[in-house]
Amino acid sequence: MATEGRESSAAGPEVIGRGIESGARMFREWFADLTRAANAGEGAAYVFVVGSFNEILQTFGMPVTFPEMNSLQTAIRRVSSEYLAVAEDYGYSSDVCGYVKADLALQLKGGEHPMGRVPKPSMAVLTNGCNTYIKWAEIWERLYGIPVVTIDIPGTRSPESKSQPGSEEFAFEQRYVLGQIKELIAVCERVTKKKFDIDKFREVLRHANDMSLAWQRVVELNKNRPAVYNAMTDGTVFLGVANAFRGTKEGATYFTELVEEMEYRVKHGIGILRKTENGMEPVEQQFRLALVGTPCYPIFRRFDDLFAKFGGVFVTSSYMSFGSGGTCAGYTYDLERPLESFAATQLLMSRDAMDSMFHQALVLENTAGKYGIDGVIFHPIKSCRTVSTGMADQRRFVTERLGLPTLILESDFMDPQVISEAQMKNRVDAYFEGLISRRHQSAA
Ligand code: SF4
User: Fold this and answer.
1) Is the dihedral of CA 51, 351, 316, 329 positive or negative?
2) Whole-angstrom Cα distance, residue 404 to residue 32?
3) Ligand 1 centre and the CA of 8: distance in Å?
4) Atom nearest to 132 CA in ligand 1
5) How many helices (H) and strands (E) in the chain?
6) pLDDT tens sequence across 128-149
7) Whose CA is nearest to atom 2 of ligand 1?
8) Are 36 and 29 in contact (CB under 8 A)?
9) pLDDT in tens, 374-408
10) Which terminus in the chain has less CB density within 10 A, N or C?
11) Distance between Cα 439 and ligand 1 center (Å)
12) Candidate of 383, 388, 413, 414 to mutate for ligand 1, largest count of ligand atoms within 8 Å of Cβ
């Protein structure tokens, strides 16, 4: 595959690895700010990744926290079991979404978190991106009596009849979302006792535009061979920054610099790197994989190792799309008509995010060839029915219609007790034996 790098600056080798380092540092600093707010008794807006409306909250200067990201951090930091046990002792069933339970435990523990302390909510914003969001926010409403703004985003009813910008149906849906955004602004004004400042909003949107365009470029740069980042492991770091820093200058600068690094790596053939005891080392790339679903956070690195040992690298992932609320697709706002354009773009982005959960096979139909995908890994998890429901059917579509070898691995992204590493290893080993023999046969 031809490379698509077009290094636009005088970047040198010092940029290699900068994206991961800066992303991790920014995320730690962001958490330190939240901890300071919590210790000062200040509240934060609680929001979700599908439709955070962070641009509105940034305009009001509100601290924002993402309970989904707080929960996944407990799994990465290997303490999710303790949090899940607190919620289950409190009465929540083992079937309830693990993110909800870890957050409830966090509330019961006064905001205590392995990265610091999470402030109590001052308000919450949610969409219908996942039906669990609605029940989850009711917990905060009961515990704290805060205002909760639920924004109903018209999703894709059928992939063939999706409303398109310019159509009457789209204009109707846009007005519907805009009306709800105005209600959100009114609640923010009440909570913060500040007036909405349209010029500040424009500035926030400008930063969000810069981030969106750079984020889209990062996604596209992985069409190159070798792939320049791991869409599952590195992608999780990019997602953290994309969500937490959306609408800020730091967030826009981060993604602009990330493009600079990735373009440099494309130009110089520097593929995915991995931290080893000898420093950062290139990963062997034999098979280009797509991940459908989420990473396996309790064994984050070891999950990746299962594939890396055969030269399997994740080039794309549906998680980058739904985990970013669709912000990686490159949609931008028209600053001349900020609110109307914000409503239309939020509609498009949230709809993309939902499609990447519910219609992933159709997304792959468009993208698998462009990314040179050799195989697709489906990862349904016990905690999240929203993402996992229908994966078996999607897998059948990908195998039969797209002719791609697939593997389905069931586990969880919060509860280590339902993760059977030995079983997963056997299935991954068998999958790669099939991929290797298929490759030999086609070479013969
Ligand atoms: S069910 Fe899935 S998408 Fe919904 S809140 Fe839980 S983890 Fe997120």
Assistant:
1) negative
2) 44
3) 39
4) 4
5) 17, 12
6) 999 999 999 999 999 999 999 9
7) 384
8) no
9) 999 999 999 999 999 999 999 999 999 999 999 99
10) C
11) 37
12) 383
CA distance 244 to 27: 8
Q: Which residues contact 186 (CB under 8 A, 6 or more apart)?
A: none
Contact residues of ligand 1, CB 6 A cut-off = 68, 97, 99, 130, 132-133, 383-384, 386-387
Q: Considering the entire predicted model, what is its pTM?
A: 0.95
pLDDT tens for residues 291-326?
Answer: 999 999 999 999 999 999 999 999 999 999 999 999
| Contact criterion met (CB below 8 Å) for 58 and 196 | no
| Chain segment 159-217, per-residue pLDDT in tens | 777 899 999 999 999 999 999 999 999 999 999 999 999 999 999 999 999 999 999 99
108-142 burial: b if 16+ Cβ within 10 Å, else e: eeebebebbbbbbbbbbbbbbbbebbeebbebbee
* C-alpha span between 83 and 308 (Å, rounded): 30
316 CA distance to ligand 1 centroid (A)? Answer: 21
> Which atom number of ligand 1 is nearest to the Cα of residue 130?
4
